[in-house]
Amino acid sequence: MPSKAKATKDTSKPVASDSKKDSKGKTSGKSKKNDAAEGSSTGKALKPATAINARHILCEKHSKKEEAVTKLNEGAKFDDVAREFSEDKARQGGSLGWKTRGALDAAFEKAAYDLEPSTTANPKYVEVKTGHGYHVIMVEGRR
Predict the structure, then answer these.
(1) What angle do CA 97, 103, 109 make, to 5 degrees?
(2) Which residues face 139 on adjacent strands?
(3) Is the CA virtual torsion 118, 119, 125, 129 positive or negative?
(4) What is the DSSP code string of the chain?
(5) Residue 142 · residue 46 · CB < 8 Å
(6) Contact residues for 115 (Cβ-Cβ < 8 A; gap 6+)
(7) Residues 5-37 pLDDT 10s
(8) pLDDT above 60 (res 143)
(9) In this predicted model, what pLDDT tens digit does every residue of 34-77 receive, in sequence order?
(10) In whole angstroms, how far apart are CA 136 and each of 8, 22, 44, 48, 78?
């Protein structure tokens, strides 16, 4: 698998991380995000958080989620893409507000809590499939 993956093509299962093996054969996870954000990663481990301020784009169909990811890769702001493509009630740019651990779908929560905070203008995002549909998730803050 390439080390710099763009948007995931096969999302028939949760797509929260890209597993890699190090020189000792141990597996490490890496969040999927756009190439620009990937290059700016600091490499520091995230401090544990009890709550996150999250945004998402929820699409019932994989093809619509892929259109949203394409827009993000072209440099569109996350909140603008969420207003255009998201099919849920979080129509304020996909904002879910502050969510504590245990308040979200397990697959969504795992992906979101592993994600580094970013801005809507330069989002670091992850894609995941849950029982609700296909999500593109970004985190604005942690506490």
Answers:
(1) 85
(2) 54
(3) positive
(4) --SS--S-S--SS--S---EE-TTS-EE------HHHHHT---PPPPP-SEEEEEEEEESSHHHHHHHHHHHHTT--HHHHHHHH--SS-TTTTEEEEEETTSS-HHHHHHHHTSPP--SSS--EEEEEETTEEEEEEEEEE-
(5) yes
(6) 31, 33, 124, 125, 126, 137, 138, 139
(7) 333 333 333 444 333 334 444 433 334 444 333
(8) yes
(9) 433 333 344 567 888 999 999 999 999 999 999 999 999 999 99
(10) 11, 28, 23, 22, 9
Question: What is this structure's pTM?
Answer: 0.69
Place of tokens 């698998």: 1
In sign, the C-alpha dihedral spanning 58, 125, 31, 142 is negative
Q: How far apart are CA 80 and CA 75, in angstroms?
A: 11
| pLDDT confidence tier of residue 90, bands split at 50, 70 and 90 | low
Name the residue among 27, 19, 41, 17 with its Cα closest to residue 124: 41
Q: Note the residue count of the chain.
A: 143
